């Protein structure tokens, strides 16, 4: 796994259910970052969502990047029913988050690739993501604009990823 450009120690990507001590800090960061996009969603509901993950299960799942010293770097989730009003679209790549002081080091790319590798390995044919402002980033992973819509009155772009296994292709997912 590539290391961030300025890392002082190697980092690990693990499922949140394997390192549950990170859940409260992650719930706080997620609620702060995306609370405006969901009705009645806050730190407590984010934490409850994280606690739905079970070792050995499929979805929902969250991966966290962290240093062995206990510093949380970021996360990404795969969930069902992420965007209200679109219950027919599943699964979702959700909540890609890198703490501000660790941004610009490739962690978002590593976390996104981890989620897409999981989807590919488990033969999910499609996945969706919605974003307020990261269309260029997700386009690098073969997500295509599916629709423009709203989340709690905020403009968002809905994007769709199609697994390379549908076309018999190799999982070369990132094009940077």
Task: Outline the secondary-structure elements.
Blueprint: E1 11-15, H1 23-34, H2 43-50, E2 61-67, E3 72-79, E4 92-98, H3 107-121, E5 126-131, H4 135-139, E6 143-151, E7 154-162
Antiparallel strand pairs: 1-2, 2-3, 3-4, 5-7, 6-7
Helix pairs in contact: 1-2
Word description of this protein:
The chain contains four helices and seven strands. With about 180 residues, it is α+β, with helices and mostly antiparallel strands. The protein has a single domain, classed as Gcn5-related N-acetyltransferase (GNAT) (Aminopeptidase, 3-Layer(aba) Sandwich). The chain has a four-stranded antiparallel sheet, with helices on both faces. The protein has a three-stranded antiparallel sheet with strand order 5-7-6. A hairpin with a 4-residue loop joins strand 2 and strand 3. The longest helix is centred in the middle third of the chain and has 15 residues.
Note the main attributes of this structure:
single chain, 176 residues, alpha+beta, Aminopeptidase, 3-stranded antiparallel beta sheet, 23% helix, 29% strand
Biggest β-sheet: count, sense, barrel? 4 strands, antiparallel
In CATH, the homologous superfamily goes by the name Gcn5-related N-acetyltransferase (GNAT)
Specify the CATH class: Alpha Beta
What spatial form do the alpha-carbon principal axes imply?
globular
- The counted number of beta strands is 7
Strand composition percent: 25-35%
How far apart lie the N and C ends?
16 Å
Mean pLDDT: 90
Instruction: Count the domains.
Output: 1
Order of helices and strands: EHHEEEHEHEE
CATH architecture: 3-Layer(aba) Sandwich
Strand order in the sheet with the most strands: 1-2-3-4
